[in-house]
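TA notes. Do not distribute before section.
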Amino acid sequence: MDLSLHRGELYWPETVDEVPSYPALEQDLTCDVLIVGGGMAGALCAEALSHTPLKTVLVEKRTVGGGSSSANTGLLQYSNDKMLHEFIEELGEEKAVRFYKLCLQAVEDLQKTAGTFSMPAYFARRPSLYYASDDNDVSKLRKEYEALKKHGFEVEYLEKDRIKELFSFEKPAALLTHGDADVNPFQYIHGLMNLVHTRNVEIYENTSVKEAGIDKEYIYFSTDKGRIAAKKVIYSTGYETIPFAEKLGAELNRTYAIATTPVIDLTNWAYRALVWETKRPYFYMRTTEDGRIIAGGLDEDKMEAPVNKEIIKERGEQLLQRVKEHFPKYELEVSHTWSASFGESDDGLPFIGQHPDNEKIYYCLGFGGNGTVYSMLGAQILSDLIQGKENADAEIVRLDR
């Protein structure tokens, strides 16, 4: 499947002065693990496998970080699009709580990994403000607070007056959760790739592959100028894997995002928290290292990012107005507007694990608003499975659930 994963003017690539590049594959090779896809999921899988003796090769048909990852808005949250108390009702308490704790640990692990980079990659721990969009959602927030508190997550319940004191805007109620983060995803991916390259992971850009047969030992792939024989393959092709993912229970939609001009004084944005709401589809905001505001939302039930520049510009202005509704005193203009495709699973969980019918094929598909977090926990699960180790958490996100 070849679709446009994003359109418009992206902000993150402008924050890297010299984007590292990697060669195209021009020879035959053999490896233990082939990773297909050079976005966040592929980079995290490569990092996990770089700690093993397995010969690992990563191929990207375009450029590293140039797909949907470059349009990622970089909010890292353990709370999901589906609340914990909703997951408990659907999955049972033990499995739901374990999944939330895996997501929280994944944020921790993303921070630890960032600390090993030799390249600059902005990463900051932040709390999240999750507010009730209207009075009807207050009881739902209260129920979520009780569930999070019961299971040991650090969370505060904020009444209307406390929200106004911290953030200046008024909302009926909110949760302030601790343990999240924000990141520059483009810098982070290139920090990962640089790191794994020093650990002998081979990286090839501008290299498309097609499955070309299988035997007892290898699965084979053809490229423009050669062939790859791999004992195992991980597809981390994100939203371009949608035909397969649709069979599992997923769909592709599109969303919009903006970056504003820098704000001189971010007073009344307590802790520079990540901000999001209970309404679906939801509006969300964060700040950047240089004081810009990244905001997103206006999700639509369409797969491909729109070609029409006027539509993208119009949605950008709508998002700017939403920001100004919250912070009317900030002097803001839109500096970048883009649209991007994103995937969602029917049950709110990512698809991570071994293909149900082929023991050589694995997937790391972090569908949902927490794609980077899912990819981190997925990389760790897949590293275990590929090495033949037991991983009890694989059951939660397996493909044939």
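Switch to the second chain here.
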Amino acid sequence: MSASRSAAKTAPRANDGLQTFTWVGKDKRGVVMKGETPAKNINLVKAELRRQGITPQTVKPKAKPLFGSAGKPIKPGDIAVFSRQIATMMKSGVPIVAALEIIGNGNKNIRMQKLINAIRSDIQGGMSFSEALTKHPVQFDELYRNLVRAGETAGVLDTVLDTIATYKENLEALKGKIKKAMFYPAMVVAVALIVSAVLLIFVVPQFEDVFKSFGAELPAFTQMVVNLSRFMVSWWWVIFLALVGSVVGLIAFYKRSEALQHTVDRVVLKVPVIGQIMNNSAIARFARTLGVTFRAGVPLVEALDIVAGATGNRVYTDAVRRIRDDVAVGYPVNLSMKQVNLFPHMVIQMTAIGEEAGALDTMLFKVAEFYEQEVNNAVDALSSLLEPMIMVFLGVIVGGMVIAMYLPIFKLGAVVG
């Protein structure tokens, strides 16, 4: 009686001319086995299987999927998961090349597979882990690469990778909270605008035909909505193109203009409720990133230089760079933070205590945890606050149009009565 099981897959090498083949065969006990093997041709696959004591039955090139064959784009969340996987395996004593091989084979995203296999091949070719990461600056930023380099230099790469994994996970969770706070109201406003446009273009004209049969003057509010409907019906495509063009143009200009980015970030920090969330988020990212880099052994001035780009806000980026310049000439971090007049008193005091006690990284992590919790609480409170406001907003927009359409009918009923 034959049983079916999967053989361990052989990791694809990053060499040219290799193709992945799927195969089915039987071992010496008659047990059916199947798997995938990269090779230059089918004959080499069969030879390798026989060498392993497997009699090949079927060997064929692996079919490529019709859609998504290139794989999904690599997102920061994918790098966070990769960081946790490599950290866990190295903590367990698995060599880095073997760990990368296991992670690469188990990843379902083809692009992520290629990235991991490329890193593994570079390490097998004699590069260090940090050197291999420098070939992929989009996925692994300067902070990531510097932390790995510091861990390799100090001989504590597994510990540093564990710290990086925790940092990435916390950072992605924080980003998720911020996106949640921004996405909900933006989607509601977008839906309200779409519903209003549909009513004005398709529904209001139907009522207008009915109103013409009345032969009476329409109420001012109804006439205003009818006029708006006529304008939308005639020029909706101009409005649509202008709206899309404006959004695309603003985004393009925003990406190219540092002055605009700085202005937008400064304005966002002053918006009620949202501004407080963004402030707390920037402080949390500053504290956690500085704590991670400092604990990894990166010199403080260099760490501050790295942290400046990780705060997520231009105002805080400029402030951290001023702190870096002050620390470079001998000022304590807490005194430099006080001079930029941006950080709360509690953050400055916690930093001062950490510097005096020689436990700056520990105190920074406590600051980060506090402000991450503040962001969580603020987002939850914002959701509760926005729900009734959104209901009122939708009621005014949609309900106002409904009332405008029925006002003439109500007046007609009063006259007839």
